[in-house]
Every structure is written in C-alpha cells, then in structure tokens.
Amino acid sequence: MRVLIAEDELLTRMDLRCLLTDAGFDIVGEAKDGLDAVRFAEELRPDLALLDVKMPYLDGIAAARMIISKGYSDCIVMLTAYSDQEYIQNATNAGVYGYLVKPVNVNSLR
Asked: Can you give the pLDDT at residue 72?
C-alpha cells in the first residue's frame, strides 16, 4: 500500500515512516503542512493518506476535504493527539475513513 504521511512534527513523521516501512507499507511522500499534503496527494495519488488534524497553513480536516473532493486518494485516516468528539465528528463529516489517536501503533493502522 502506497502511503502519504502529513505531520508537522518531524520526529513524529520519522516515527510513522519507520513504523509503516517496517510493517511493509511503501511511503511515497511526507508533508509537513496541509497545503503540502494536498499538493503531494495530487501528484502521488497514494492509496492511503495519514493526515494530522492540527497542521500549519491548512488543517488536516480541510486538507482531507480537498483530497477527497478531488479524488486524490482512496482512503484518508486522521492522526491526532485529540480524542475530542468534535474532532471526530468533523473528520467523519469530511469523509475520512478513520481516526486514530496518537501514539499510533501498526496494529491500529492495519
């Protein structure tokens, strides 16, 4: 599975890359903000886009809406440190497939 990671924190992005690569996923791109996430999704057409909710320039939920509406990825999963029901509802309304609270483990992703 081809995966795009969008996470503004470098260490978290690196951890996700290692975790997913070790599990056999193909990391096709890494974005540090929501605008890059949309741009990379358009260019790379990943099978899965993992988007952090809170990112600079464009938050993850807004980026998810754009990616989904343009058909740039088949599946979007939100990653966040927030388990607030409002975030979950906003993600669901945006059309995302799943919502994972950090720290994420590979079993949760599978």
From this structure: 97
Nearest to 102 by CA among 92, 90, 87, 94: 87
pTM over 0.85: yes
Look at residues 100, 91, 103, 88 and name the one whose alpha carbon lies nearest to residue 67: 91
Compute the distance between CA of residue 68 and CA of residue 96 in angstroms, rounded to an integer. Answer: 8
For 94, phi then psi, to 5°, come to -75, -15
- Which residue ranges in the chain fall short of pLDDT 50? none
Q: What is the DSSP letter of 81?
A: S
Distance of CA 60 to the CA centre of its chain: 7
Instruction: Say what angle helices 60-70 and 34-44 make with each other, to 10 degrees.
Output: 20
Angle between helices 85-94 and 60-70 (to 10 degrees): 20
Reading the block at residue 94, the tokens are 């945006």
Q: Which two tokens stand for residue 54?
A: 């809170």
